[in-house]
Amino acid sequence: MREDSQGAAPLEDLDRALGVAFHDPGLREAALTHRSYAFENGLDVTNERLEFLGDSVLGLVVTDLAYRLYPGLPEGSLAKLRAAVVNMTSLADVSRALGVGRVVLLGKGEEQSGGRDKSSILADALEAIFGAVYMDRGLGVARELIERLFRPRMEAYARGEGDRDFKTLLQELASQELRAMPEYLIEEQGPDHEKVFTATVYLAGDRMGHGRGRSKKEAEQQAAREAYTHIIERAERAGP
Q1: Within this chain, do residues 226 and 140 fall inside the same structural domain, yes or no?
Q2: Same-domain check for residues 138 and 216
Q3: Who has greater pLDDT, 67 or 172?
Q4: Does 233 lie in the same domain as 126?
Q5: Long-range contacts at 163-171 (CB < 8 A, ≥ 24 apart)
Q6: 21 and 79: one domain?
Q7: What is the C-alpha to C-alpha distance for residues 79 and 193, in angstroms, rounded to an integer?
Q8: What is the model's pTM?
């Protein structure tokens, strides 16, 4: 087993972070073998096939979890939720937190160019790990792992954290759920150099959200976020 300069065993650290003990360590090694390493060392196995498999397992588990967690969410919003959770940036962030970059097998050129922190490499390796866990331990263990890693991100997104275009999201949701289009009432206060804008959004004549900001756009986004959250929560309470 490879060790770092501090004497720790990075692969064992990864197993602990994953909470998975591989029955077949060869699957784990394959999941960590980048094509640059395989090419330089004359190997036939890379992590690309496992990445292909893991991508499907990840998509299934996240889609199923979103479907069960948010029974009132329409198909279009479920798709946006999944896309926000399953993307290269998100996968790379999770991969970094697990320490995958320390143990991925890279060719010399990729190593020298900073490959251990490249988002594409880290994301692909994580998907390959999911594929390896599925092959080694089955869907149940893979599901538990993926839900533990990605459910907090899914819930944060559903709460409205992060950069999102709530005006567009609200428009799509209102069209699907209420058959109505949002209408914004804008007010402004203060001198030109210190203006404060307030926005109130109405749906079918009902006041649904309110926001304040230093620009009309900021105020409208805050109002749309409040309205969007209100509709989602109301749909969740109503159930399927």
Answers
A1: no
A2: no
A3: 67
A4: no
A5: 164/84, 164/225, 165/221, 166/221, 166/224, 166/225, 166/228, 167/220, 167/221, 167/224, 169/77, 169/80, 169/224, 169/228, 170/201, 170/209, 170/224, 170/225, 170/227, 170/228, 170/231
A6: yes
A7: 41
A8: 0.66
Catalytic residues: 55, 127
Select the more confidently predicted residue: 41 or 234: 41
Domain that holds residue 24: 10-158
Domain end marker among 109, 129, 158: 158
Quick one: how far is CA 119 from the chain centroid? Answer: 13
Confidence at residue 115, expressed as pLDDT on a 0 to 100 scale? 86
Local structure of residue 33 (DSSP, 8 states): B
Whether 123 has a pLDDT exceeding 60, the answer reads: yes
Q: pLDDT higher for 86 or 8?
A: 86
pLDDT interval class at 5 (50, 70, 90): very low
Q: Of the candidates 48, 35, 2, which has an alpha carbon nearest to the alpha carbon of residue 106?
A: 35
Which of 156-165, 174-183, 199-208 shows the lowest mean pLDDT across its residues?
A: 156-165
Same-domain status, 35 and 139: yes
Q: Report helix, strand or coil for 45.
A: coil
Q: How many domains does the chain have?
A: 2
* pLDDT on residue 7: 30
Any domain includes 1: no
